[in-house]
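This section describes the prediction task in plain terms. A model, or a person checking by hand, is given the sequence of a single protein chain and must write out its three-dimensional structure as a string of tokens. No templates, partner chains or ligands are provided. The sample shown here is typical of the held-out split.
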Amino acid sequence: MKQIKYRYGLGYENSIVDILTVDPKNRGKYRCISCGQTLCAVLGNKRTKHFRHETITESCSEETYLHQLGKRLFYDTFNSRLKKKQPFEILIMRPRECNFCQISVPCQIAPKQETIDLTKKFTRAYIEKPDNGFVPDILLQADSGEVMYVEIAVTHKSSEDKISSGVEFIEISVQNEEDLNLIASGRLVEIAEEESKVKFHNFKPVVNDFSIECLKQTAKRTFIADYEACCKKGEPFEIFYNRPRECTVCKTWAPCTIKPSEEPFDLTKRFKLVKSDVSLTPEVLLQTSSGKRLRIVFIGRSDLIQESSFSDEYWISIRLESEKDLSLIKSKQISPKDKRVKLYNFNPEPAKGKFSSECKYLVTVFILHQNGKATIKLLKCIEYETKKQNENAYFEIVKDESPEEYKRALEQSFIDGRNVKNCFLCRYHTKAYQWRAHLSDIVIFCYFKKIGCGSNDAANCKHYRPDKSVFRYCSTKITE
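The expected answer:
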């Protein structure tokens, strides 16, 4: 007969002993948790440490061993944590019922995960203590008399009688010694998969006024129904998003100050509805043929939104406070202008064009007239565009209104062959000694005529002699 190897045995005062904690120099006496017979501690270096029966027996089974061990481990762990005032927690998706709307239709609210510390609720634990015709593996009892069962399931699951009893109980599936680590951790969590090691039975729903939660579910159902109808009938279901606009007139020098334009987008042209009615989460999922996703999530008036939680997917959040807000969905026109609506990760390419009539930015313009006179002015974009179209002159957007920029533009215009006549280009000018409000009225000194004059007086001066040797701001060698 094959020798059974166990990791755990019973030691002094029936305490559970892990073979990994046994000291080779101080071995004690150990008994089998299943059959009660004497165990030997095998502590060799070549083989895995384990307990084995001193005498091979047929009365011991691994199923009984795991079942008894699970009960004792839960009992010891719970009492130890109770004594040390440490939590023994269960994390359960607690059903919720709304007492606001239950008269009309069955309430459909998503369960909410709740953490319950068993040591705060129960003060005593018993192994196989009878209760109302049942003998649970562990009976937890509160001072008020409230009880909870704990069942260790090795091969046999809980009976239908126990499940239908209405008593709250925890079922822990133990298939091997590693599964016992779940109990030792003091934290039991039920996962959605069928093979979950922990199951919670008969936990009563939380009953409260969850009218906002109900409203979220109603909004979800309304959106799905209306969206499907639009897809079938070929009708639009639109969202409006803000498209940035860039003015090509002024963008060279400063950020454009034009307001984004609100543009409609028909969701049905690109997105298909992904069925999500089976989930009680308050959101709808739409998806394109290429796999891009758009989530519409419905939130209550007091829900907090962490924008960092939104992934790279498109998101639309709609805040709800009352049934009146459902009209927003029924309108099939969802716009961020409505304070209840927010769009996330919608980053459309900006529209580019000549939006001079809307742009409030001022451009600095160098203007060279046909008579050779020149000036620099600050103009609104619309003024610049109008003048450029209607006046027979040369226009150039420059950096600023400084005298240096004015002289640079004058010199460059002359080098480029334009008809410019200005004293700053004349060999007879010397340093200006007075600056007036407008650069066209800059006063320089002419040492040919021995008088001061405006720089644009050169347009009517018979002594005007342009000379590149007096240029200071343009490289004539490179240009020529």
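For orientation: The two ends are 107 Å apart (CA to CA).
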